[in-house]
C-alpha cells in the first residue's frame, strides 16, 4: 500500500470505515447525504494526503450509478458551470469561441451544454450509463466511459475535472491522462473539496465531504503536488461557491439537525441559494511545453 500522491509506503489508519457492508452503486450517489460515513481513511506520514486505499474497481459502481436528485438541481448546476468556465476563461484571457474543451466526469452534460452555449466546441466523458443517457437524449455530446475510452488522439485547449479527483482510485493516473489529452500550454481546471479549509477543520470527521464516494482528500499542498507531478504548472487557486435549490439545502441540513425542526415549504424548490463555505478548491493549471 503506497500513497497515491507521493508514493510513500508510510500510511497510517486515521479513521475506521462505517459498517456499510457490501458496497453498491447507490453508495456513490452524487447527492448522498450520509455525511461522515466513509471507507477506512489512511494518512500518508510523508505528505499528509488522506486516502481510502483498500477499495478496488470503483469504476463499476459509477457505471451503474443513477441519481435522480442530481438532475433536479440542473438549473442551479448550470449557473455553477458557467461560473467555473468563466473563471477559467479569465485566466486564458480569451473567449471560449472555437476552443476545444473536454469535461471529464461530465454527468448528464450540464457543463458541456453550458460550454457550448459559450462558444466552446465541447465534449464530455461520463462512466454512468444512466447519466450519459440523459445527456444523449438531450443531444449533448457526452461519451459513455472514462477519458481512457476517448477515441482518436485529438488534443484539447481546455479540460475540466469538476469533483472527480476525489472519487477515483488512481488520481495521478487520471491527471496524467488529462495532460496527455491537453495541448502544450492548454489549461486543466480541477475542482475538489479542501480538507484544509476552515470549515473542514471545524467540523472534523462530520464535514459533509467525508462520504463513501470520496476516496481522496486533498488540501492545497497535496493538490499542488499532484498537479506538478502530473506535468502541470498551477496558475491560480480560488474557492468557488455553489448554488443549490433551497429545498435541497434544507433537506441536507437533516444530516445535522433532527428533520422535524426543519420546515421545507413547497416553494423552496424554486428558490436558488448561493452558498460559499470556502471549502472547495479550484485549481487552474497549464500543461508544460515539452
Ligand atoms: Zn504521500
TrEMBL record:
<protein>
    <recommendedName>
        <fullName>Methyltransferase type 11</fullName>
    </recommendedName>
</protein>
<dbReference type="InterPro" id="IPR029063">
    <property type="entry name" value="SAM-dependent_MTases_sf"/>
</dbReference>
<dbReference type="Pfam" id="PF13489">
    <property type="entry name" value="Methyltransf_23"/>
</dbReference>
